[in-house]
Amino acid sequence: MPTDVEQLAAALPASGVTRATRLGLTLSPQMRPDTWRGLVTHVTRLARTTTRARQTLTAWLGDVLVHHEARGRGWIAECAEAAGLDAGTLRNAKLVCVRIPVSCRHDALSWTHHCEVGLAFVEPTEIERWLVLAEAEKLSTAELRRRIRAHLAGRTGETPAASADAVATFRLMRELRAAGRMLSCPRGNSTSGLPSRKTP
Question: Is the dihedral of CA 48, 1, 56, 99 positive or negative?
Fold first, then answer.
């Protein structure tokens, strides 16, 4: 019997996707903008209508958004709304997908493990070191987060609590700015649930 991820992968459009795993999508480098937009529509619809494999669908959306850089204010927020996701979750997914390409993700780890590492570090060598550590020691995401915070606190001289407060404040300010942008931009009508603005 096919797994949830296998069933979702089988439902993907044939064009544009070269490989689909529970940790991400590998996409054709020559994908045309209209094919890309169709893929965004399809994956957001899957995310909106299924409760299965939520982490996988979030990773897929992150990879799709990284593949063909969308321009225009509020695009990620509108895609997140169409997918039934928090805009901050989708922004984080895109950032993690930028920092950890599909080929560098570890099958033994969850998407959440990759998020913990990808949001905390920028350098590929440091990202790989932490992913290897998490896999080798079979760390839970909570333990991985605790170790990363302790590491960052030791490097900056901050306490982990102060570092967590700074992250929470940054996220709140980012969400307030995004909400302000959405309120100041008129939104087009869309039958697909996606933004009506044109892609490049």
Answer: negative
Give the pLDDT confidence of 23-50 residue by residue, as tens digits: 999 998 888 888 888 888 889 888 888 8
- pTM (two decimals): 0.74
Q: Percentage helix, strand, coil, to 5, in the chain?
A: 65, 5, 30
Buried b (16+ CB within 10 A) or exposed e, 57-68: bbbbbbbbbbbb
The whole-angstrom separation of Cα 153 and Cα 158 is 5
**Residue 174 CB coordination number (10 Å):** 13
Domain boundaries, the chain: 4-184
What's the chain's length in residues?
A: 200
- Decide if pLDDT at 83 tops 80: yes
CB 68 within 8 A of CB 199: yes
**103-123 pLDDT, tens per residue?**
999 999 999 999 999 999 999
Question: What are the backbone dihedrals phi and psi of residue 172, each rounded to the nearest 5 degrees, phi first?
Answer: -65, -45
Tokens read off for 96: 């993690």
